[in-house]
Amino acid sequence: MRLVLLGPPGAGKGTQAERISREFGIPKISTGDILREAARNGSELGLKAKGYMDKGDLVPDDVILGLIEERISSDDAANGFLFDGFPRTIAQAEGLDRMLSSRGVTLDVVISLDVTEENVIERLSRRYVCSECGRVFNLVTKAPARKGLCDACGGKLIQREDDRRETVAERLRVYNEQTDPLRGFYRQRSILAAVDGNGTLEEVYGRIRREITRGISP
Ligand code: AP5
């Protein structure tokens, strides 16, 4: 099964992707997570990417496509995967098409998580992430058991650099300009499923699950 989760910053892609990955047994491939990990390690890629990310801009397409090509060639992606935050431009979607067709496979479903701008801003202002392992929390909807500390590894919880109000505004602008057109791109191929991403974590997951099951049944 090959899936894409599309949606604006803070739509809940990463949160829902964790659960889909567990239930359907496919790896979650998040370009944002890969880039943040590279930045934490201080690699050349990480340092280059950080400059774009901290401003809310997109990392260049050729860098992202190189990462994806390498990642989907891993053994654990042989039977499928779930993209979170990729593709993000028409050029990335076309690059992905080329990679998949050279492997003789296609995407099954593209889930578009639609969330109001008001909800996005509220969710991001309350999001905290672990500085050590990257796990995501929310002060209201997914609070850690111990204040300021990660449930998984005990690391310190911090706010993401790009969750500052002015950077969120820029990320939303970039999303509307460069990523939103992908909905039309995939709708034309009849693999787009628009899902209401407002509501509780459980409600949203139920809607996504229905679309995935419908999209992969014969
Ligand atoms: P990336 O990490 O992909 O960020 P994003 O798309 O902006 O998405 P977020 O991670 O902010 O949000 P999310 O939708 O995953 O929401 P979450 O589940 O955390 O990209 C970051 C940067 O990397 C980009 O700006 C760019 O520079 C670069 N980049 C990455 N991929 C790229 C690519 N392909 N091309 C070029 N550049 C790329 O949820 C948010 C919060 O809300 C959490 O606290 C969560 O607990 C809470 N929450 C979730 N769902 C609900 C709900 N239903 N109700 C209440 N709270 C909820």
Automatic annotation (TrEMBL):
One GO biological process term: AMP salvage
Compartment(s) where it occurs, according to its Swiss-Prot or TrEMBL record: Cytoplasm
Domain Adenylate kinase active site lid: 127-162
Binding site for Zn(2+): C130, C133, C150, C153
Family: Belongs to the adenylate kinase family.
General function of this protein: Catalyzes the reversible transfer of the terminal phosphate group between ATP and AMP. Plays an important role in cellular energy homeostasis and in adenine nucleotide metabolism.
Binding, AMP: T31, R36, D57, L58, V59, G85, F86, P87, R88, Q92, R160, R171
Entry EC no(s): 2.7.4.3
Pathway: Purine metabolism; AMP biosynthesis via salvage pathway; AMP from ADP: step 1/1
Domain statement: Consists of three domains, a large central CORE domain and two small peripheral domains, NMPbind and LID, which undergo movements during catalysis. The LID domain closes over the site of phosphoryl transfer upon ATP binding. Assembling and dissambling the active center during each catalytic cycle provides an effective means to prevent ATP hydrolysis. Some bacteria have evolved a zinc-coordinating structure that stabilizes the LID domain.
One Gene Ontology MF term: zinc ion binding
Catalytic activity: AMP + ATP = 2 ADP
Binding-site list for ATP: G10, A11, G12, K13, G14, T15, R127, V136, F137, G199
One Pfam assignment: ADK_lid
Gene Ontology cellular-component annotations: cytoplasm
The protein's name in its UniProt record: Adenylate kinase
Protein encoded by which gene: adk
Complexes and interactors: Monomer.
Keywords per UniProt: ATP-binding, Cytoplasm, Kinase, Metal-binding, Nucleotide biosynthesis, Nucleotide-binding, Transferase, Zinc
Region of interest called NMP, as start-end residue ranges on this chain: 30-59
Region feature LID, mapped onto this chain: 126-163
HAMAP family from the UniProt entry: Adenylate_kinase_Adk (MF_00235)
